[in-house]
Amino acid sequence: MKSFTFERPDSVVAAAKAVADNTNAKFIAGGTNLLDLMKLEVETPTHLVDVNRLSLAAIDDTPEGGLRIGAMVRNSDLAADSRVRQHYGVLSRALLSGASGQLRNKATTAGNLLQRTRCYYFYDTSKPCNKREPGSGCAALEGFNRIHAILGASQDCIATHPSDMAVAMRVLDATVETVTPDGQTASIPIADLHRLPGNTPQIETTLQHGQIITAVTLPAPPKGVQIYRKVRDRASYAFALVSVAAIVDASDGKIGSARLAFGGVAHKPWREPQAEAMLAGQTANKALLDHAADAVLVGAKGYGENNFKIPLVRRALNAVLTAATQSA
Fold it and tell me: 0.85 exceeded by the pTM?
């Protein structure tokens, strides 16, 4: 690990300014991802700005009937919150499916959203990686790419976003609150927070340097059955090969509305509005579910080792929608 300096500001604006004033500075909260990357010298910040003293660890009711989740709320606390368990079950289940208990006790809401890909080649500094070193190439394209993207990828990067929590927040239409170094606040729909790789995979979010996440707001609980299904190589402590977050309002086998978000398939939590529109107002049957899967998988492409993900998305979606309509 390379040497670095360290400070612990006592206000959000001071923290944002401390990072903005140093191009090689990073925020650190739980550090469950950043410290690993620093040990491997994938990340080499020269200055760390510790945000653990900031008062951002509350979960509050909003006047609109939703929840405002502070950026420093630990993943375990969020998953266990009675309001989250009762009204946002998809989020609680997604959180509990991620990492280990020890990591969830340390990891924060904002850090979870901003964690970096688990692509093997990104972590291996002896291999080319456009995300780690722009212009060097992508070893995953013709390498071992079992965990890699089938949707929204590019010839410069086929990495996936690793977060389970972000997939659930995507299906819930969460909003990310931020503060800039000059004290200005901004709200970013979570759909606009993460970027597809294109030819600049090193730029992963729409945040500017120094812009700090302060909270995530959930709208009022949506109507319907909430399901999070994660398919992975082992029962615990594994990232998703494919995950599906679903909120389905159905009655007597007829779908009133459906929201669907997918993890493990793209550089960001993936949502396909055409598939959701196709399901609304229809009676669930095999043909309908197959058509919805076709809509989700438009443009899907495997790279060899991960070809299995295309039929896996189809089967996972079918299982989730069948369970949702049968339990309604």
Answer: yes
> Measured between alpha carbons, how far is residue 179 from residues 13, 17, 157, 182, 187 in Å?
7, 10, 30, 8, 9
Give the contacts of 315 (CB within 8 A, at least 6 positions apart): none
Q: Is residue 90 scored above 80 in pLDDT?
A: yes
Are the C-beta atoms of 309 and 241 separated by less than 8 Å? yes
Burial category of 257 from C-beta neighbours within 10 Å (exposed 0-12, middle 13-18, buried 19 and up): middle
Q: How does strand 185-189 pair with strand 212-218? A: unpaired
Task: Say which DSSP state 5 is in.
Answer: E
How are strands ordered across the β-sheet holding 185-189?
59-61, 67-70, 212-218, 175-179, 185-189
Report the DSSP pairing between strands 47-50 and 5-7.
parallel
Task: Write the pLDDT tens digit of every residue in 92-133.
Answer: 999 999 999 999 999 999 999 999 999 999 999 999 999 999
In the structure encoding, which two tokens stand for residue 200, read together?
């600049």
Tokens of 250: 């159905």
Give the H/E segment covering residue 14.
helix 12-20
Alpha helices, H only, the chain? 12-20, 34-39, 75-80, 82-87, 89-96, 101-106, 109-114, 120-123, 165-171, 273-279, 286-296, 309-327
- CA pair distance 243, 162, nearest whole angstrom: 10
